Amino acid sequence: MLTHLRRAAAACGGATSDHFLALRQFSSAVVAVSSVSDSDPTLPSSSDSQRKASRWLLFLPGAITFGLGTWQIGRREEKIKMLEYREKRLQMEPLKFSSAYSSDEELDSLEFRKVVCKGYFDDKKSVYVGPRSRSISGVTENGYYIITPLMPVPNCPDSVSIPILVNRGWVPRSWKDKFLEASQDEDLEDALPSPSHVDGSKSWWRFWSKKPVIEDQVASVTPIEVVGVVRGSEKPSIFVPANDPGSSQWFYVDVPGIARACGLPENTIYFEDTNENVNPSNPYPVPKDVNTLIRSSVMPRDHLNYTLTWYSLSAAVTFMAFKRLRQKNKRRWQSRR
């Protein structure tokens, strides 16, 4: 470039030495800037870092899906251990329930253990939870779980000493309809005035006439043996509506709430009847199948399917990332040629 400037200065006959010196200094500055721009590593290094970052971003979906597949393997192992634990507990001999199991830790130790207890059902305080579907010979029928307090039987040493809640099993929808009709009839009878009110006298006769009847009924009750499993409240999903005790609408098992509705303490024990000896002449309620307690909404085989799905997706997106990088490198190599 300096040679070209000298030739330009020579061609201009009127150019002085000062002009030549100025042109010489300008040409030196141009050469210096060009050399600095060629040797300055800041621009190419920043582009290289951006290029590397974009490469890592291409592999990010594959890494995430691979991690999800690995997480499903761990979940599958946990689910297998949990189901094996439940199965071993359910195969043990049933325990005789005692009121000594009062603390939460003692009740937790009974989880998934079969327990035997005796008492009588207070049917007037039954609660229907549902609707719950049941498939019979390929036909799906809607119904409810019926939960009834099991009350102590006087003068019976084998009876429970405190009331407990028992999920007796599945019943058809007609059971709840009849129960609501009977409850409405009882409420109507209680609302009607008694003959003593019509005469203007007191209604003490109602109190004294009912008490002996209740005592005779309780004394004549034969204790019922219930074989069940101690359970807790259900954990509803976001799609399950909230319970409405005021209108007797129960969509999921809430033990404290059902206990309050039945006039029992909130820490009342809750059983699920698993007795398999069902009377054919009286098939309802249908107790819960024990096998349902060793099943989960997501079984180990489902976790295995999820694992294969995530790993397959990881392999697919990683292959696409490699292919994309290969195309970029190929175009860059061709442009350099």
Describe this structure in words.
Its main location: membrane. One of its GO terms (cellular component) is mitochondrial inner membrane. It is a multi-pass membrane protein. With 337 residues, the chain is α+β, with helices and mostly antiparallel strands. It has two domains: 61-91 and 300-337, no CATH class; 93-294, no CATH class. Helices cover 51% and strands 16% of the residues. It has nine helices and seven strands; from the N terminus they run αααβαββββαααβαβα. The chain has helices spanning 2-11, 17-39, 42-90, 104-108, 173-191, 195-199, 204-219, 255-261, 300-336, and strands at residues 95-96, 114-121, 127-136, 139-151, 164-172, 224-231, 270-273. The chain has a five-stranded mixed beta barrel. α1 (2-11) runs antiparallel to α2 (17-39) and α3 runs antiparallel to α9 (300-336).
Write the layout of secondary structure elements.
Elements: H1 2-11, H2 17-39, H3 42-90, E1 95-96, H4 104-108, E2 114-121, E3 127-136, E4 139-151, E5 164-172, H5 173-191, H6 195-199, H7 204-219, E6 224-231, H8 255-261, E7 270-273, H9 300-336
Parallel strand pairs: 1-2, 5-7
Antiparallel strand pairs: 2-4, 2-6, 3-4, 4-5, 6-7
